[in-house]
Each structure stands twice: as structure tokens, then as C-alpha cells.
Design brief:
- By secondary structure, the chain is an alpha/beta fold.
- The chain has five helices and five strands; from the N terminus they run βαβαβαβααβ.
- It has a single domain, classed as HUPs (Rossmann fold).
Length: 130
């Protein structure tokens, strides 16, 4: 069994990591922790380094529990939601975990919501964490 956790370093994403860790331990699943730089480019090395450090921290939480974990920094020019959904399909994951930030309806219209996109378009079940 394979899980995907969408990770952006937010408190909601950290809560999603914690829950995925519990599920993975109980179900003996492997985990892919994925960060998408929707607006990043490969030339932006400082931002890439920051995101890789954040991913290393997330991966270490699974390592402490003896759970197989791979971290992925995606720089493909897609929105984070699109990146996560595509990654899930490409890697045959069984379950996706995403943190959900509380936003107003207007805030979602202006900024968009990666979690909302994943929930509506994912090829597998999605667990949301607030």
C-alpha cells in the first residue's frame, strides 16, 4: 500500500504528516511526501534548498517510526493541486493525505485551493486534515 502526503510546511500539512504516519504504521504502507513548487523554476536554487530542507524534516518523521518514505520536490510548472493529482496517478498511490487551511469563499476564489483541486480530481480517496 502506498500513501501520498501533500506537504507545504504549514501546520495543516504537519498534521497530515502525523496522521499519515499513524495510518502507515498500522497498515504497513510506504509513503511519498510531495512538495510542488507551482511557481518555482530550477533556476531558483535558494527556494529549492529551502523546500528540500523542509521535505527532509518531513521524511525524518517517518524514518523515526521505521516507515518507508520517499520525498519528492516537483518543479513541473503546474499548480500544486494538479501536481499532486498527476503524481498520484503516475505512482499508483492508494490514499492521499492533505492539510486543509480555513479560508473564506472569497479567499478561495482569489488564491485557489490545492486541497480543493485534489479532493475533486484525485483518482483515489483523499483524507483531509484541519
Amino acid at each position: 500500500m502506498k500513501f501520498l502526503v501533500g506537504y507545504d510546511g504549514s501546520n495543516a500539512a504537519k498534521d497530515a504528516i502525523a496522521l499519515a504516519c499513524k495510518y502507515a504504521a498500522a497498515l504497513q504502507a510506504s509513503v511519498h511526501v510531495v512538495t510542488s513548487m507551482g511557481k518555482g523554476t530550477e533556476d531558483n536554487q535558494k527556494e529549492i534548498d529551502k523546500e528540500q530542507q523542509s521535505l527532509a524534516y518531513a521524511g525524518s518523521l517517518f524514518d523515526k517510526e521505521g516507515i518507508t518514505c520517499e520525498t519528492h520536490l516537483l518543479i513541473r510548472g503546474m499548480s500544486p493541486g494538479e501536481d499532486l493529482v498527476r503524481f498520484a496517478g503516475e505512482n499508483s498511490v492508494d490514499l492521499i493525505f492533505v492539510g486543509v487551511k480555513s479560508r473564506s469563499k472569497v479567499g478561495k476564489l482569489l488564491v485557489g485551493s490545492a486541497a480543493q483541486y485534489v479532493i475533486l480530481n484525485a483518482p483515489v480517496p483523499v483524507v483531509t486534515v484541519r
